[in-house]
């Protein structure tokens, strides 16, 4: 039997204990509580080694920190690519940049000179100091920046200068339009008919907007003698825009109320407000399906009658007892620009019902060919200032391209009624009889005589 050799000076007792500890270590031997406390007291503190951070994680965190904040105030957008492609002329300024989106270095240098001339005249006539106006604009900087969806990479000084110069340019443009005596002989905008047309075009673009509250705040500084009867900026805006977009025709119930905060965001939003239905209008919305309406020609073949109506809203299209009533729609050189920008605003903004988008989609479905336009012009529903009816049908087919909808569907009930009417055999037979056999009293008499003779 093998016996381990005992070291000199070591008893068998100590040897067995020591040897036993060595044999039982990790095999079920548990030290006492006292031994644990002693061991923990004498042991060196544990060193925790942190794992090196992933370089990509650090990079992502930096990008997150640099991401601009999103605000509910956002309402001035860059037009999405699906609308812009092939239609750049309807969304990009021709002669003047207003706001930061198109104010890149060297853009429209001649117009920058005109802006400064307008600024000088505005301050002089109203006895205002540049420091006073600039100080006011600086107090609005944070709020004004939040109106633009894209991040504005301008310093505080650059942003304040841009907003002040552009806002006063727009104000002076509006005031001179209303009070022509302020237009001097050297005015390079109002003395040049082609130029003012292009400037008006640029003022209506969604990418070319100044926050409405900035314009309104600066207008409050204008001397009352210069305002005449237009004491409130909302009145001046109405007078300025109605020339181009014909918003006056909807009657007094659409007129702006002086001294009331309408919550208007910018000029495009101001125009849209005029087309909206009144809050007390009862309307049946569709929440699940969309119905494509028949064309105007198909509706006429089914015996639908057409009539125009003077109504409170351009959206107020009604169909009752076989008669489709549509408010008069004037088509001119401004129509496509105005409605394309209204649609772009609606498609980008958080509107529960996209009224203008749905209206243009509806009209685009009903107006397929120049024959459809002929019928609507015949019934005085469309008043066209364009060259031909082919141009009108092309315009309506282009305006609604790329439009998307959210629920609910404003024209669901109308389209459902029109489709049901056209699918009814009785309505179609009645229309054929009326058109082919009973369109004149004499022809009706001959048909009855022929029927009598055959009996």
UniProtKB/TrEMBL annotation:
InterPro entries: DUF247_pln. It comes from the Eukaryota. This is UPF0481 protein.
């Amino acid at each position: 039997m093998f016996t381990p050799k005992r070291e000199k000076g070591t008893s068998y007792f100590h040897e067995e204990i020591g040897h036993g500890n060595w044999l039982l270590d990790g095999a079920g031997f548990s030290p006492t509580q006292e031994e644990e406390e002693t061991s923990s007291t004498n042991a060196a503190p544990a060193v925790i080694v942190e794992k090196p951070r992933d370089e990509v994680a650090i990079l992502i965190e930096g990008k997150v920190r640099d991401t601009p904040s999103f605000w509910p105030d956002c309402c001035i957008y860059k037009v999405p690519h699906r609308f812009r492609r092939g239609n750049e002329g309807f969304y990009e300024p021709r002669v003047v940049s207003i706001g930061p989106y198109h104010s890149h270095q060297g853009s429209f240098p001649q117009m920058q000179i005109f802006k400064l001339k307008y600024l000088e005249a505005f301050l002089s006539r109203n006895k205002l100091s540049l420091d006073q106006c600039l100080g006011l604009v600086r107090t609005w900087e944070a709020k004004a920046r939040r109106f633009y969806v894209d991040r504005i990479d301008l310093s505080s000084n650059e942003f304040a200068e841009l907003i002040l110069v552009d806002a006063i340019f727009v104000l002076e443009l509006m005031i001179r339009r209303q009070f022509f005596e302020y237009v001097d002989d050297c005015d390079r905008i109002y003395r040049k008919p082609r130029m003012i047309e292009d400037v008006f075009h640029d003022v209506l673009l969604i990418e070319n907007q100044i926050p409405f509250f900035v314009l309104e705040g600066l207008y409050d500084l204008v001397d009352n003698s210069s305002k005449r009867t237009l004491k409130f900026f909302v009145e001046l805006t109405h007078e300025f825009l109605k020339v181009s977009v014909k918003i006056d025709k909807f009657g007094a119930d659409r007129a702006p109320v002086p001294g009331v905060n309408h919550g208007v965001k910018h000029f495009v939003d101001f125009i849209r407000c005029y087309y909206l239905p009144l809050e007390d209008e009862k309307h049946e919305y569709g929440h699940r399906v969309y119905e494509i309406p028949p064309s105007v020609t198909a509706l006429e073949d089914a015996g639908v009658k057409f009539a125009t109506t003077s109504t409170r809203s351009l959206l107020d299209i009604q169909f009752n007892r076989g008669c489709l009533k549509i408010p008069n729609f004037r088509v001119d050189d401004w129509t496509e620009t105005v409605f394309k920008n209204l649609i772009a605003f609606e498609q980008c903004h958080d509107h529960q019902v996209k009224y203008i988008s749905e209206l243009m989609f509806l009209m685009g479905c009903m107006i397929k060919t120049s024959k459809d336009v002929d019928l609507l012009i015949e019934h005085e529903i469309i008043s066209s200032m364009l060259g031909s009816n082919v141009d009108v049908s092309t315009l309506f087919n282009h305006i609604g391209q790329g439009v998307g909808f959210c629920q609910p569907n404003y024209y669901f009930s109308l389209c459902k009624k029109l489709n049901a009417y056209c699918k009814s055999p009785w309505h179609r037979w009645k229309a054929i009889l009326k058109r082919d056999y009973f369109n004149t009293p004499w022809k009706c008499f001959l048909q009855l005589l022929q029927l009598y003779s055959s009996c």
